[in-house]
Write a structure and sequence with these properties.
The complex is a heterodimer. Chain A is an alpha/beta fold. Chain A has helices at 8-18, 33-41, 43-47, 58-70, 81-86, 88-97, 123-129, 139-156, 166-169, 199-222, 244-250, 271-280, 293-299, 324-330, 357-370, 404-414, 426-443, 471-478, 495-506, 521-537, and strands at 3-7, 23-26, 75-80, 103-109, 133-134, 160-165, 171-176, 227-229, 236-241, 261-264, 266-267, 283-287, 308-309, 421-425, 447-452, 485-488, 511-516. Chain A is built from 20 helices and 17 strands. By secondary structure, chain B is α/β, with parallel strands linked by helices. Classes of the chains: A alpha/beta, B alpha/beta.
């Protein structure tokens, strides 16, 4: 038993390591990135040879995790909420195949969209797939849920979803660890066609999944993560899911809430407990991060009894993450006076670093686009370079999902837009842009794709990029003509040359790829520092 | 005891090393701790903050409620004001006065200082200059921690041993430079601390 100071993400990772996990697969994405990074730094993970390399995207990550589970070992796939959209195909079907070795899909949601395009709630995916969902309220539970989640997965033969949200992902606290378990040995599923989802077998497997639902409910009924705290004042009962429980208890400093509380950390919800709770309280307040899922279930479509409050009736704001003050307002408690923020405090939005290569590309791109007339639009993607949508650049006009820049530019080109231009990063390109480019090659769509290559996954902190060193080969391999794969060095002194090359390729009536390549200023200074440290110590 | 602290700065200024040092000191004193950080997009030159809570009792929320922070430690003057809604009536605002200007509409320094001075419980310190004066120009963060140390419910010695743990792997020289910076910040604060109570009325 060891006490460690860990982020919620790190607690998940440590719990998985201690539970005998044999491999983790992930693509970086805030707020989930630190799960994989922790395993990569872990000495125990290195000693045990736990697989801990980044994957090309969340789909390949989850498939590899499923493959490791097929081979009998415990595996984890980790991603941010929108990453689960990418992995949705394998995720949904892994519930139908079931698993062999325990498998956890750890998903970090980002309510309030601190670093995301939306605030979708992954619990809906868990319900959709009909698998157990665990949602920790604190770092210790994050550890315990990962530690015990594999057993749950193996017991019911289903993947387990662990849903965590930004604040817990990135908040640190003390965690007591449990004994380190052995890894599983290789073993195949007893039924050789368990994972063959041909219709004849898929129908059987789907029935098996439906039958397992009772076991899922029984497991949740007995779960130590669903706790019923009785209270004398039954005029109101409070259902608190995950981290919402902490915000609730913050409003009762001595830990004494007069109302009954049902703390939920394991779904499907414990039916008997919820029923008893609902019937014994006059009104119910539901506190949950993300969408009003539990609230909606309790109200029912017609909301006949009108006794449930939460995000749907405005007692809690419909969007955004919770905090102690929002919960206080929801409880009808007054928030005390607080100092006003002076008007002179200006917004300070994130921005591209001094010396960043993306800046030089946008300067050249803006000048080139001007040549084609007023009001030119550029399709773009997800990464640091998305900041090019803001002043002073205002260079790009879309950011939707990973890889969408190329395919959206294709659609626009098909609609007759000339030139049709996409800006995408190197890591985003190998995540989901390659098949998009193949679509363009297949039809010889007149499109110019700028792959702004900083040789890292920069926005999430400089993880390795699978594209590094092979972008030209990938593009020509997909069928882009070698003379239309153009390499540039994005520096102010090459500005004119960049403008010239961009204009040439935009005027070409076919698929062209321009690759401005210069290493991320952050990873560069880090590797220089490391080098310096080495020189000092040797 | 409890200390609820907001750490403020601009992405890349390294407020997390302050948090880590206080965290180490808290652990040495067997205190409970929760520390919420900002990762991701805002780290690119945007406003960043960290909520650090220390207590001898169990801590519920990872976030500090409005009006409940005992201390704001800011490594940048405008950023210190961004979070004053968290500061309690008796709380202290401890800020570096060296501005980090990466936006076009950054306010006038004079106006900024006037606003900071409306908080009678404030320490405004030129941490960059003090760090240079003790020949540790890269340790302005530790100057700030030193300036905040009189208002922390943690023994000062524990902060020094926190520094030893955090910076130990970088060598004894780095540890000493950071400790010098810590001391210099603390001395400044002890000289300039004039408790007035209550400092001003919130609202």
């Amino acid at each position: 038993m060891q006490k460690l100071l860990l982020l919620g993400d790190e607690a998940l990772a440590q719990g998985a390591i201690d539970a005998g996990m044999s491999g983790i697969y992930a693509y970086p994405g805030t707020p989930s990135t630190e799960i994989m990074e922790y395993v990569q730094r872990s000495k125990v993970a290195a000693e045990r040879n736990i697989h801990r390399q980044w994957s090309a995207n969340e789909k390949t990550a989850t498939e590899a995790a499923l493959g490791m589970s097929y081979a009998g070992k415990r595996s984890m796939a980790a991603m941010k909420h929108v990453g689960l959209n990418v992995a949705a195909d394998v995720f949904m079907n892994s519930a139908v195949t079931g698993v062999n070795g325990g498998m956890i899909v750890a998903v970090a949601d980002d309510p309030s969209m601190h670093s995301s395009q939306n605030e979708q709630d992954s619990r809906y995916y868990g319900r959709f797939a009909m698998i157990p969902i665990l949602e920790p309220s604190n770092q210790q539970e994050a550890y315990d849920m990962a530690y015990e989640g594999f057993e749950l997965s193996e017991k019911y033969g289903l993947p387990v979803l662990i849903r965590i949200t930004t604040r817990l992902s990135h908040s640190r606290s003390g965690v007591t660890t449990s004994p380190l378990k052995d890894q599983n040995k290789i073993s195949y599923p007893a039924d050789p066609i368990q994972f063959v989802l041909l219709p004849s077998n898929a129908k059987k497997r789907y029935q098996t999944l439906l039958v397992k639902q009772k076991a899922n409910r029984d497991a949740s009924a007995e779960s130590k993560f669903n706790i019923y705290y009785d209270g004398d004042d039954k005029s109101l009962g409070i259902i608190a899911c995950g981290i919402a429980y902490n915000y609730l208890m913050e409003n009762f400093p001595e830990g004494k809430c007069p109302h009954p509380i049902l703390k939920i950390g394991h779904y499907p919800m414990p039916f008997e407990k919820v029923k008893r709770f609902y019937e014994s309280c006059e009104k119910i307040l539901v506190l949950e991060e993300g969408y009003p899922m539990v609230e909606e279930l309790l109200r029912g479509y017609l909301n006949k009894e009108n006794k449930v409050s939460g995000r749907l009736n405005g007692v809690i704001p419909r969007s955004g993450e919770l905090n102690p003050n929002i919960v206080a307002t929801g409880l009808g408690k007054a928030n005390g006076e607080s100092f006003q923020i002076p008007d002179i405090v200006a917004n300070r939005p994130p921005q591209l670093c001094a010396g960043c290569s993306h800046k030089d590309i946008y300067d050249a791109l803006n000048e080139t686009m001007k040549e084609f007339g007023e009001d030119q639009r550029v399709f773009s993607d997800i990464g640091c370079y998305t900041l090019g949508a803001l002043p002073p650049f205002n260079s790009i006009h879309t950011c939707v999902d990973m890889g969408a820049s190329i395919t959206m530019a294709k659609g626009a080109a098909d609609a007759g837009v000339r030139p049709s231009v996409a800006v995408i990063g190197d890591s985003t390109f190998t995540h989901s842009g390659m098949t998009a480019l193949l679509d363009c090659v297949y039809e010889n769509t007149p499109i110019t794709v700028i792959i702004s290559d900083n040789s890292t996954t920069a926005m999430t902190g400089g993880q390795t990029s699978e594209a590094s060193g092979k972008l030209e080969e990938i593009c020509t391999g997909l069928g882009v003509k070698p003379e239309h794969v153009r390499l540039l060095t994005p520096l102010p002194k090459y500005h004119d040359e960049m403008v010239k090359v961009l204009a040439e390729e935009m005027n070409y009536d076919g698929v062209s790829v321009v690759i401005p390549r210069r290493e991320c200023i952050q990873t560069l200074s880090r590797s220089k520092k490391k080098q310096k440290m080495k020189e000092v110590t040797t | 005891m409890k200390s609820d602290i907001i750490l403020a700065g601009v992405g890349g200024q390294g407020i997390l090393s302050i948090a880590a040092t206080i965290g180490m000191a808290a652990i040495e004193n067997n205190l409970n701790l929760k520390q919420a950080e900002v990762h991701g997009m805002s780290q690119r030159g945007g406003a960043v903050q960290s909520h650090l809570r220390i207590s001898d009792k169990e801590i519920a929320s990872d976030l500090i409620p409005l009006g409940k922070a005992d201390l704001i430690i800011s490594v940048e003057p405008m950023e210190s004001l961004r979070y004053v809604s968290y500061l309690s009536e008796e709380g202290w605002l401890v800020t570096n006065i060296t501005p980090f200007i990466n936006i076009p509409d950054y306010p006038e320094t004079g106006e900024l200082m006037n606003e900071i001075e409306t908080f009678l419980h404030h320490i405004a310190i030129n941490a960059d200059e003090i760090a240079r004066s003790v020949k540790s120009p890269r340790s302005s963060n530790m100057v700030m921690l030193g300036a905040a140390s009189p208002f922390l419910d943690i023994p000062y010695d524990s902060l020094e041993s926190g520094i030893k743990k955090i910076f130990g792997r970088k060598g004894e020289k780095i540890v000493q430079l950071n400790i010098e910076a810590l001391k210099a910040g603390r001395e400044f604060a002890l000289e300039h601390k004039q408790a007035t109570s209550p400092q001003k009325t919130p609202g």
